[in-house]
Amino acid sequence: MLQLFKQTQKSLFNIPPSNSLLQIKRFYDQKVIDHFENPRNVGTFDADELDIGTGLHGSLACGDVMKIQLKIDKEGIIKDAKFKTYGCGSAIASSSFLTEQIKGKHIEKALGINNKDIAKELNLPPQKFHCSLMAQQALKSAFLNWREKNQDHKYVSGNNTTSKKLRELAEEDKEQEEKN
């Protein structure tokens, strides 16, 4: 993947890959570079399984597409998370970082992670904040997909806290879209 990145940088900017990587290393925080060069939790689950929630989100502005999948147990704990992202280093880093952060957490706690948390932790430049927003939206979509498949689950049918959290996230998404 790094070799493809170097080739792309050379063709896009017409500068040697080593100089291009130096520019990127100056522009991005080391955490972004680490998650880009060594992404965690890349892969997919069988989306037909009941304990798997799949969320897909993209950005028309930049063409990035992000898929996040969650494996949620009967207690509402995210046992595993996978992602596939086609996009820039910030999008890949946001997906990788988010999947690391949510593994082992209860769905309510995971849904509390927002794009500002991701952007702050990765030190994303302002023009890349949309990457962290895509990760948050893909996470929410994955949970909604899981919830749809598990209507009788106690965290779907009987827990108002989770429903309240989803309403809050929907309101935040609407506000964010209005700003963009």
UniProtKB/TrEMBL annotation:
GO molecular function terms noted in the UniProt entry: iron ion binding; iron-sulfur cluster binding
A Pfam family the protein falls into: NifU_N
Gene3D superfamilies: 3.90.1010.10
NIF system FeS cluster assembly NifU N-terminal domain ranges (all copies): 28-151
Chain spans, region Disordered: 154-180
UniProt record, GO biological process: iron-sulfur cluster assembly
Compositional bias annotation for Acidic residues: 170-180
Protein name: Iron-sulfur cluster assembly enzyme nifu
Taxonomic placement: Eukaryota, Metamonada, Anaeramoebidae, Anaeramoeba
